[in-house]
UniProtKB/TrEMBL annotation:
Mg(2+) binds at D128, D154, N155. Keywords: Magnesium, Metal-binding, Methyltransferase, S-adenosyl-L-methionine, Transferase, tRNA processing. This is tRNA 5-hydroxyuridine methyltransferase. GO terms for biological process: tRNA methylation. Belongs to the class I-like SAM-binding methyltransferase superfamily. Cation-dependent O-methyltransferase family. The gene is trmR. InterPro entries: Cation-dep_OMT, SAM-dependent_MTases_sf, SAM_O-MeTrfase, TrmR_methyltr. PANTHER family: CAFFEOYL-COA O-METHYLTRANSFERASE 3-RELATED, O-METHYLTRANSFERASE-RELATED. The keyword tRNA processing applies. Its EC number is 2.1.1.-. Catalyzes the methylation of 5-hydroxyuridine (ho5U) to form 5-methoxyuridine (mo5U) at position 34 in tRNAs. S-adenosyl-L-methionine binds at V34, S64, E81, D109, A110, D128. It catalyses: 5-hydroxyuridine(34) in tRNA + S-adenosyl-L-methionine = 5-methoxyuridine(34) in tRNA + S-adenosyl-L-homocysteine + H(+). PROSITE patterns: SAM_OMT_I.
Amino acid sequence: MNTNHSYILNLHKINDNHIEALREYAVNHQVPIVDRNTLEMIKQIIRINHTTRILEIGTAIGYSAMQFASVSDDIQVTTIERNSEMIHQAKSNISNNHYSHRIRLIEGDALEQFDKIKDQTFDMLFIDAAKAQSKKFFELYTPLLREGGIVITDNVLYHGFVSDIDIVRSRNVRQMVKKVQQFNEWLMQQDGYTTNFLNMDDGLAISIKGE
Ligand code: SAH
Ligand code: MG
């Protein structure tokens, strides 16, 4: 972690909210919640683009869903999670922090839940689930995104492996990293989207629909 990174992290920490208390649990239990500086970037995009309807793929313990919802009382988050232990944690966190009325948790594999939300539209899609499946999530759910809406894909640099695959020994991880590389290049070439990539934390891609 370089000094600029820590410096900015500490500036953001000045405005820590109550949800931030969950980060310690996540770190201790290896739950990969969104990094802090990335989160602040996304919250700023939510403000800039007047985002109120958010779809998230990958809830985990509900941390990012609640952080997004905390930006404004108008925000409604729909979030999908397949892991039963995570679902249990998310439900309890969302209820304890009084976000149940603004966060809808959909239980099951995101690739099978389209019918439950297909009548809705969204201002933002946050893709943060199984990294090898990001392209499938993008293809399935972006038809629900309004023109001018934003897709944010997290972990596009995946531990630095994506830019330096030769350091990866495990065959499974290599397969996954290749998928992320393919996704990033595919995303960059999507007609109807303008994408930029940020070298922040684990990497994120910001795609704007219709420009
Ligand atoms: N967005 C959260 C972190 C999500 S971690 C945050 O920043 O706070 C990724 C989560 O995606 C894990 O809990 C995992 O169980 C879930 N996941 C992975 N693949 C999935 C799929 N196909 N459908 C639903 N959830 C999935
Ligand atoms: Mg992530």
